[in-house]
C-alpha cells in the first residue's frame, strides 16, 4: 500500500523548482502527497544553507514534526546534505539523505510503490515537474556554480555549473505556454553565465529564442554582475516579453570587501552596469542583495555600501547579516564584526531602503500598469505588475475578472514595496 509524503521547501526559487521535480518523482514511485506534514509518512525538507537562520529553521521544523508524529520518516535534500556536522547532529532523527542530483535514482534510496513504471533518469532536470502554480512558474536552465564567492556554500552543495541544452528549455517553456501559463521565470544559481556550447548559444541567445515564443511575461534570476554583458543589457530594451525588473546582487559597496568576497568586480563597475541598464529600461525596478558584517568590514566599508545604495536608489535590498558557512573560505577568516554591530548596520540599511522605496512607489501613483491576477478575496484581487511589484486591486462596479489573466489597472496608492489600484 502506497504511503504519503509532504515536502517543505526552504530558501530560493531554485529550491522551489527542485521541489516540483522531487514531487513528480515521488508520484512516479507511487507515493501520495498530503497537505499536512503532521499526517505524512515521509516529510522531505529541501534545505538551504546560505544563511544560519535557514539552517536553524531546519532543527525547529524537525522537532515539531517528530513531536506531532514520532513515526514520520524525515528526509533531507538540498544544500545541507553535504554537511557532515549536521548529519551527525540529526542522525537519530533523519533517516534519508540525498542530493538533488540523485533524484534520478531516488527509487534506490526510498521505498518504491510503483516499480513497474519507473523510468531511468540521467539528469534530474529531465524530470517533468509537478507544477505548483497553473499561472506562473520557474524553469531551471542549469545547476551549480563556478564562482566560489568566499562566503557561499552553493558550489560545494551543488557542484560546478551544468546547463541544459537550449532546445530542452525551449520545449518546456513552449509546453507551459500551450497550457496557458502567463509568466515564466528561468532560473539558475548564476543564470546569465548560461552556455549551450553545442549550439553556440549564450544567455542572451537563449533569451532571444524564448522571447519569440509568444505573448507572456518572461523573467530571469539570479544574475551575476560579472556576466552582465553589453549584448545582454542591449537586449533588455529590445525584448517584447521581459518584465522590467532586474535582481542583481551587489553584496557590498566596498571594493575591499568585494575583493575579500571574491566577487570579481568593483563598486565602480557595478555602478556603470546599472547606468547602462537604466538607459535601456528607464522604469526598471532594481533589487539587490547585501551582506553586512562580513569579516573585516569597517565603518568606512559600510559607509561605502550606504553611499552606493543611496546613489543607485534600489527598489528593494535583501539584507543579510554575515554568518560563517562551514567549508567556505570566509569561514577561515576571523568573524570580527560584533553581532550588535551587524544588527545595527542591517537596521540602518533597511530603514534607508524603506524610505527610498516609498518615494519610488509614490511616484507611480496615477500610472497605468498591467497586472497578473493571482488571488481573489471578496471584491479585491491580489497580483503583481509587469515590473514584478505586488499589487492589490479593486474592481469597478463589482465586475468579475478571471484569475491567471492580465488586465490593466491604475495605481491609486503605494507602500514601500507594494501598490494598490483599480482595475480598468
Order of strands in the sheet with most strands: 2-1-3-4-5
What count of helical segments does DSSP give?
A: 11
The CATH architecture designation of the largest domain is 2-Layer Sandwich
- The total number of structural domains is 4
Strand content: 15-25%
**Overall pLDDT metric:** 94
According to CATH, the fold-level topology of the largest domain is Transcription Regulator spoIIAA
Helix content: 25-40%
CATH class of the largest domain: Alpha Beta
What spatial form do the alpha-carbon principal axes imply? globular
Q: Can you tell me the residue ranges where pLDDT is under 50 for at least 5 consecutive residues?
A: none
Radius of gyration from CA coordinates: 22 Å
Instruction: Count the beta strands.
Output: 20
| Gap between N and C termini | 53 Å
Judged by helices, strands and strand pairing, the structural class is alpha/beta
Major sheet, described briefly? 5 strands, parallel
Describe, in plain words, how this protein is organized in 3D.
This protein has 4 domains: 4-117, Rossmann fold (3-Layer(aba) Sandwich), CATH 3.40.50.12160; 133-241, Transcription Regulator spoIIAA (2-Layer Sandwich), CATH 3.30.750.210; 244-363, Transcription Regulator spoIIAA (2-Layer Sandwich), CATH 3.30.750; 368-423, OB fold (Dihydrolipoamide Acetyltransferase, E2P) (Beta Barrel), CATH 2.40.50. 31% of the residues lie in helices and 23% in strands. It has helices at 13-28, 52-68, 84-89, 154-158, 166-178, 203-211, 230-236, 255-260, 267-280, 299-312, 339-362; strands at 4-9, 32-33, 42-47, 73-78, 96-97, 136-140, 142-143, 162-163, 183-187, 195-196, 201-202, 217-221, 245-247, 285-292, 316-321, 368-377, 380-385, 390-394, 406-414, 418-423. The protein has a 5-stranded parallel β-sheet with strand order 2-1-3-4-5, sandwiched between helices. The protein has a 5-stranded mixed β-barrel with strand order 16-17-18-20-19.
